[in-house]
Amino acid sequence: MEPSPALDAQRIRDHLRRARRNVPLEELWARIDSVLERQFAEIDEKELPGAALERLLGICFWREGLEAVFGSDRSEGGRKGDERGMISRAETEGRLDSSPTTRQSVVMRFLLLSCLAFGIISSSAQDSPKLLPSAHAHNDYRHPHPLTDALSHGFQSVEADILLIKGKLLVAHDLDEAKPANTLQALYLDPLQARVKKHGGKVYAESKEPFYLLIDLKSDGESTYRALHQVLIQYREMLTEFQDTAVERKAVTIIISGNRPKELLKSLKPRLAGRDGRLSDLATADPRFTPWISDNWQKHFQWKGQGEVPQADRDKLKALITQAHTRKLQVRFWAIPDKPEAWKLLHEHEVDFINTDQFEKLSVFLSQPEPKP
Q1: CATH code 1.10.240.10 for 123-367
Q2: In 3D, which of 239, 209, 238 has the Cα closest to residue 130?
Q3: Where do the structural domains in the chain lie, given as residue ranges?
């Protein structure tokens, strides 16, 4: 794979030199191996698009280039001098072809993989993107980089399905998708906790707005929530607390959807999660317990994404949002057409969260001063 011409080699080298002063070499290898292990575990050669397979092979090539530079020594002793010195030693020891083409390829692969492993190239974008208050990442865990991709696009809310399997909360929609390494803690809670500490009690450095983690319980509601409650207590410092008389807002707000054990949610204290309601709850929901109203668009509206939106749908949507906001509830719809025409409709009617699988397109849409389809 040829390195992208859009990347400036000198800028990458400068970033890498600064990063390497503080990052152990063992951690670099651990991150690379983790990425490869996850990618290979999920690969399906019959279904994987050609471009994705090419990127996966590219990761392998970059790793080989890094190994050629460092040799088999993964300790700190293997990291002496800058990358040019390492490559020269690799050539002397016969580990690397000294031809200009191979040399340039290995340099670029080494620099690119190192930067990718530490998020150096996109770190500025991921650490301080502009918050998009309406953006909700539907089934976020199915994207290449769970949580990270959504954060890099400024999303305020992400969705993760969980299953309780042998005492572990695994992020997956179905049993055949579940992988032991993909725990709720590893994919979401630990990274969020690290960001909150880094940004002084906030998920986004430049915004005090709460970040939402919608957790959809796919296994038995009561047993799954009991296990989840014990996990959430370990992260209490960053989690919004729903009390009987008030809501103590913190950096991350957990919303429970799917199999929602209402009475158990009410009884377990501290209550570190709110309940996701349905339109049937709109008239009675208390935002101190049920702060969200989510429902299936297809069951309540005629418009399915083609042609003009019926006026009856517009009137109904306006009335629902007015009622919800009067009661201080936030609204989200799933199963709505994932396209600009739908986003525009929701945005114009002040629907609180726009459900999408298209992170880049929605972020561009919401970043426009006056979004248009």
Answers
A1: no
A2: 209
A3: 9-118, 123-367
